[in-house]
Write a structure and sequence with these properties.
Length: 201
């Protein structure tokens, strides 16, 4: 009986020892698991930190890219506005040039028309002077004196100036922008007793 009790005690002690060993092993496993979990947590945390840093760097890179693109857009917008302003200015300059060209063309046409009328007037006046010269020759005859010749020449000049005034009045009544300008010129007057020169201004 005693032997059985001793044997049971021995078995109990062995079981307790085994239990302690198992508990110790379990505690070790638990510690290992805790350490592993901590390692896993630290790894995950480190991974999350790295991902966060990467995301932050990507965010800053995107921000820099957006800033660069916005600056390019602003520069292009400014250049576009400048081009529009230059285009508008050039269009205005072209319009002014066209208006000036049209005025010059109209002025040229007006001057051409005046020139043609002046040619007609000059031809008519020269013809009239020639007719007056013939009349003077007929009226004076061979006994004319120098005084009569001078008086006749003055009369012809007065008639010529009168015709010029009539021509100017006609042009002004026609509504021309400017009256034609008659430059001084010399007309030969042939009367009996010697050649004379009639200068009209």
């Amino acid at each position: 009986m005693l032997d059985q009790v001793c044997m049971l005690n021995a078995r109990l002690a062995a079981a307790e020892s085994m239990t302690h060993d198992v508990i110790r092993d379990l505690l070790g496993v638990k510690l290992d698991m805790t350490n592993y979990a901590n390692l896993i947590d630290q790894h995950q945390v480190q991974k999350l930190v790295e991902e966060a840093q990467q995301k932050t760097e990507e965010f800053h890179a995107k921000e820099q890219e957006i800033f660069t693109l916005r600056k390019q857009i602003d520069d292009l917008t400014e250049e576009l506005e400048r081009c529009k302003s230059e285009t508008n200015q050039k269009a205005a300059d072209i319009l002014v040039a066209q208006m000036n060209l049209e005025r010059l063309q109209e002025r040229g046409q007006l001057l051409a028309a005046q020139n043609e009328m002046l040619k007609v007037d000059k031809s008519s006046l020269l013809k009239r002077v020639s007719e007056l010269d013939e009349i003077v020759k007929t009226l004076l005859g061979p006994q004319s004196t120098h005084r009569q010749i001078q008086r006749t020449s003055n009369t012809k000049a007065s008639v010529f100036l009168t015709l010029l005034k009539v021509s100017l009045t006609f042009h002004l009544q026609e509504g021309l922008a400017e009256a034609p300008t008659y430059h001084s010129f010399v007309l030969p007057v042939s009367v009996r007793g010697g050649p004379y020169v009639l200068q009209v201004n």
